[in-house]
Amino acid sequence: MTAEPNDDGAAVEDRHAATILVENHRAFLRYLERRIGNRALAEDLLQDAFVRNLDRLSSVPEEGLVPWFYRVLRNAAIDRHRRQGAEQRALDGLARELADASEPSPDLRQELCACVGRLAQTLRPEYAAALKAVDIDDTPVKVFAERSGLTASNAGVRLFRARAALRRQVAASCGTCAEHGCVDCSCGKRSATPSA
User: Taking a C-beta distance cutoff of 8 angstroms, is the pair 73, 67 a contact?
Assistant: First the structure.
């Protein structure tokens, strides 16, 4: 059977290509670290690039292997910057939302908190916990992040997503009342369906 020698030959070529990449590990790491500015993150991106591209090594000619892998790393760094930019935009939106918010009267706050608290319990547990801690118990986001074992930016993103999920749940449960801001809330009588 001719498939076995070809498979063995491909495996040998893959090992040889992997050896070439491993020999250039330090240069790859320096390249990423200069672009990312964080050694630990650069190491993570490099490891991820190795793992994701091991199955492609046999399709790259040996003489083009190192330049090809630099392109892989450049794309990984660009993707990381894009994700970081999206996270920052979400946090900036949250900061604007919080800056524009005004404090309701104590009676209105109590009524809203009771209704929204019931709806929040239909969300994913981590969303409900974030909303309860920050929006109902007035825990600062940084303190919530520390208690939950999250970074401040991850806690901010979780809170942003939790509020979006809650908005959808309020709209589904309260209908037009959610848009017009009615205070006579009878949402507790309706059956709330879990939401993500």
Answer: no
Right CATH for 3-94 from 3.40.190, 1.10.10, 1.10.1740, 1.20.1050: 1.10.1740
pLDDT grade, residue 7 (50/70/90)? Answer: low
Q: Where are the domains of the chain?
A: 3-94, 104-189
* DSSP 8-state class, residue 133: I
Vertex 57, ends 9 and 60: CA angle to 5°? 95
User: Who contacts 5 (Cβ-Cβ below 8 Å, separation ≥6)?
Assistant: none
108-136, pLDDT tens digit by residue?
Answer: 666 666 776 777 788 899 988 888 888 87
